[in-house]
Prior knowledge:
Blueprint: H1 4-9, H2 13-20, H3 40-53, E1 61-67, E2 73-79, E3 82-84, E4 87-93, H4 97-104, E5 107-114, E6 119-129, H5 132-140, H6 144-152, H7 162-175, E7 187-201, E8 209-216, E9 219-224
Antiparallel strand pairs: 1-2, 1-5, 3-4, 4-7, 5-6, 6-7, 7-8, 8-9
Helix pairs in contact: 6-7
The site of flavin mononucleotide (FMN) has 16 residues, from strand 2, strand 4 and helix 4.
Amino acid sequence: MAPVGALRRNMPGRLRGALTRRTAAQSSAEPPLREEASHPVDQFHRWLADATRSGESEPTAMALATSDAQGSPNVRMVLLKQADSRGFVFYTNLGSPKASELAGRPKAALCFYWGRLGRQVRVSGKVEPVTDEEADAYFSKRPRLSQLGAWASKQSKPMRGYYDLEKACASFALRYPVGAVPRPPFWSGYRVVPDRIEFWLQKPFRRHERIVHVLENGEWRQQWLFP
Ligand SMILES: Cc1cc2nc3c(=O)[nH]c(=O)nc-3n(C[C@H](O)[C@H](O)[C@H](O)COP(=O)(O)O)c2cc1C
């Protein structure tokens, strides 16, 4: 796969200009997609910071796609809690359908959409559990009511009515009335270790910009894609 810089250098000037022009929706002083992009996770952080500044209500919300033993896809929203060169981390209930699916097929895809900026980021790769130390450190920083909520929820299991959840929250509040709430053994995190990260930037008249970064032999390579 050719590096983006080389592809761009071979383009006619008019097209080159079209690729660098920014729409009014972009608020950052930086060009949104960079020709000589550094690590794609750095690019992701620039976009996440732009999304946060733009006033997106849940800039860290991402769709998480997994698949079950029959290969049927499942998708739901989760919150990104950490992103670095090791991967993209979220936390959840280990008894949930998503956790069972990840146990059987440890691969996932993520999709962020920031409508105010007209930007999408897609990430895919293998999935690994975070360490107990990482999960403990994150859980200990959560608000107490969220910690009790994690104990109370048998995520995605049927309940007779909302009262079941309220009763469970009350009983865990009694079990842990004061002091630190320990992390439930059935609650932890996963890291999506990316081998593909795609940036999509909305442009007028469907001339959107797309650059995909693919990990090949330990190196990130970039490729323009038709929109
Ligand atoms: C914006 C948003 C953020 C969410 N964040 C999380 C999260 O970080 N972890 C989580 O387990 N569920 C989160 N949920 C709930 C999930 O979408 C889903 O309902 C739940 O995890 C059960 O999914 P499952 O049955 O596929 O395992 C979030 C929902 C929304 C709408």
